[in-house]
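Posted in: Protein Modeling Q&A

I'm a second-year student putting together a small comparison for a lab meeting, and my supervisor asked me to include a predicted structure for MmgE/PrpD family protein. I've never done this before, so apologies if this is the wrong subforum. The sequence is pasted below exactly as I got it from our records. If anyone can share the structure token output, I'd also love a short note on what stands out.
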Amino acid sequence: MRDEGSQAVLKKVQDFVLGLTPDQIPESAMERAALMLLDTLGICAAASPMEAGLIARRVATQLYSTSDSTTGARMLFDGRTVSLAGAAFAAATQLDNLDGHDGYNPTKGHIGVVALPTLAVLAQHIPGLAGRDALTALIVGYEIAGRAGIALHATVSDYHTSGAWNALGVAAMAARLRGQTPAMLREALGIAEYHGPRSQMMREIATPTMLHDGSGWGALAGMTAAILAEEGFTGAPAVTVEAQEVAPCWDDLGRFWQIEHQYVKPYPICRWAHAAIDAARELKLAHGFTHEDIEGLTIRSFNYAVELFPGVPDTTSKAQYALPFPVAVMLVHGEIGLQHISGPGLADPEVARLVGLTRLEATPRHEVRYPGGRWADVEIRLKDGRVLQSVDTHARGGPERPFERQAVLDKFMAFAVPALGFARAEAIRDATLALTGPGSRFDRLGSLIVDPL
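Accepted answer (user: helix_wrangler)
Welcome! Here is the predicted structure, written out as tokens:
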């Protein structure tokens, strides 16, 4: 029998997921939800023509199609109809393979990568969905997934990918948007947790591939769990929700809004590398040297960061999970875009030269601040004999060094316009930001994000 504490946590979660109303959410959280949705849409659009996204959508048509109109949805930036689970899987997989979407330090992973696909595919069956109700559902996904992730990290020794816990956020959003009962939600959370991909994150770091952070399978597991629960399939309890030892992870549900504490990535690179990239960037801006002046480079960071790919990558996946490479790209080009981590960008000889000059060090003072922060420092030796040392630097874009609203809008346009054209990107931007307003509807945005590029 469940103890009273576990029952109280479950009841709190059920009431939050199924009963939260827009007027209970601070306006700052609503505004942030719209910005996170927009940021993720930009990455989703930019990732659509990439190989991983093409494969994921093709496989979704082969394996996850449906003849049931009540459980079908058009895939994002593609237009073809597959099952709800297939459409969520395809979008999350293509997003996961362009590592520029938001994240949350305490979870050591990502939520928006599944929350956007879940909202976008389920909203296709709710034509009158109000904009503020859509953002409320998105916030539910962030809040449930985030706490499930913290609970998982606190209770198991292995470092699992985001798919292991963001599946619960998908199940929660589906329960809300499909009008499920509290009992169905409980079973769905248990099913999603049990079948969520407990993928080994450090295996992917050691050998980067298209597996990335497991979020495609997290979306698939979470959506499938919700439909199974509707049909009477059982799977409760979810240990990350109902176990006595994780109760503190849920204490501030509805009071502390995790959506306001997500970081926005300025670069489509693993977050672990961002502090070093920013430290190098700031040294170059302060001292005005060029990449041709460099004869040596030392990067000091936390343990996981220095385990990122150390050489010159030959694939986009390795480039996104590298450390010396993106730092070198920043020093050579002053920016890091999709063009630098794919195609000819992987064969830049000057970037390769700097990678070869780089030494990596795991540093205790940076390690003790992880995962609450992502810190690094960089030392650059110049040919004229100068040695330039950065300060300890935290990655930009999160609560520690936040971006202004305009910076997020600029990032969206930078990623979306090459894929969509200016007019469509601008229309998506405006429709997304309008969701916070009274009388807004999600279908204005929904119609803009399903048609093919």
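A couple of things worth pointing out for your meeting: Strands lie at 72-74, 81-83, 294-301, 358-362, 375-382, 387-389, 393-394. The first helix runs from residue 4 to 19.
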